[in-house]
Amino acid sequence: MSEIRNNWTLAEVDALFALPFNDLLFKAQAIHRQYFEPNKVQVSTLLSIKTGACPEDCSYCSQSARNDTGLERERLLALEEVVNAAQEAREAGATRFCMGAAWRNPTDKSLDHVVEMVKAVKDLGLETCVTLGMLTAEQTRRLRDAGLDYYNHNLDTSPEFYGEVITTRSYQDRLDTLSYVREAGINVCSGGILGLGESATDRARLLQELANLPKHPESVPINELVRIPGTPLAENEKLDSFDFIRCIAVARILMPTSYVRLSAGRTEMSDETQALCFFAGANSIFAGDRLLTTDNPAVDADQQLFSTLGLEREEPCVSV
After folding, report:
1. Under 8 Å CB-to-CB from 81, ≥6 apart: which residues?
2. Would the CA dihedral through 196, 56, 121, 319 be positive or negative?
3. 3-state secondary structure 133-176
């Protein structure tokens, strides 16, 4: 079995990126097969439970109050609405239901409502995941006691490039929240966004940071920037598909036991690009027509792609 490491050097990560494309994908696929069934894909669904008016200044985000994207502020969804959406996701084949709220950090009163949502979705037999911004240690424990399976909090990019994208919270703030989540015994979901204008070194540093956490995230979402009109990054050039695939492969090699998820940006990826991502070690996707506020491939399109590639949805296993 491939060694599980948390002490990767930047030179080692750079060397992986420098491998010939075929050699890199072969290495990633070989490691993937040591820990996962090669033709199984975990499917999640993501629902925005509170949309818009976020005080953060994330340059890529349609939900930032500082970005003029025309997005209307919406209230926190009612429990019944969330349960109905979770039931639909389960019927469509999702095994994990993720709930996202556009907050810098939740108030304790807001968290009361989220706790009830977590319990209700868990009762449906789905794995639960939430992304709510920064948390305190006590809030994290409350989510654990409600039965939360995963908490998502992305690092987004490298520590060195981070300040070019976000200024309203620090990289250390993100690391602190991940530490609280890990200490509470909740599974960690943390990845990043590619195509922000970062350098190849920044992409290597992001993956190095994730791989050198005290324990690898159980889920590593790799997003491609969705260039949303009204955001500062709307005119960024599209990331080269081969650069994206290389990142998937390197993530698989660095974090052999993690689920590597194709997340935002799949609507602009060809079937061939997605197929190579699966070969490179991606084994999780978000399904459903929307990812928070952006488009996602239709469920029937994913089913067709799975059929073409001989992929199957992974069965649920609800545990922490």
Report:
1. none
2. positive
3. CCCCHHHHHHHHHCCCCEEECCCECCCCCHHHCCCCCCHHHHHH
Alpha-carbon separation of residue 184 from 6, 149, 178, 211, 313 (angstroms): 20, 11, 10, 20, 29
Note if 61 is an active site residue.
yes
**CB–CB of 282/255 below 8 Å?**
no
d(CA 281, CA 253): 8
Examine the pLDDT at 14 and tell me if it is beyond 80: yes
Q: List the catalytic residue out of 96, 169, 174, 189.
A: 189
Residue 151 CB coordination number (10 Å): 25
- What would you measure as the largest C-alpha separation in the chain, in angstroms? 52
pLDDT attached to residue 247: 97
Q: 96, 98, 252, 266: which is the annotated catalytic residue?
A: 98
pTM above threshold 0.70: yes
Residue whose C-alpha is closest to residue 295's, from 246, 233, 231, 224: 224
From CA 277, how far away is CA 250, in angstroms rounded? 11
**Catalytic status, residue 247:** no
The Cα 249–Cα 24 span in angstroms is 7
Per the annotation, the verdict on 277 as an active-site residue is: no
Least confident of 65-69, 121-125, 193-197, 315-319: 315-319
Residue 320 has pLDDT above 50, yes or no: no
What would the pLDDT profile of 241-254 be if each residue is shown by its tens digit? Answer: 999 999 999 999 99
Q: Active-site residue 317, yes or no?
A: no
| Residue that is written with structure tokens 């996202």 in the block | 100
**Other beta carbons less than 10 A from residue 301's beta carbon:** 15
**Which amino acid appears at position 55 of this protein?**
P
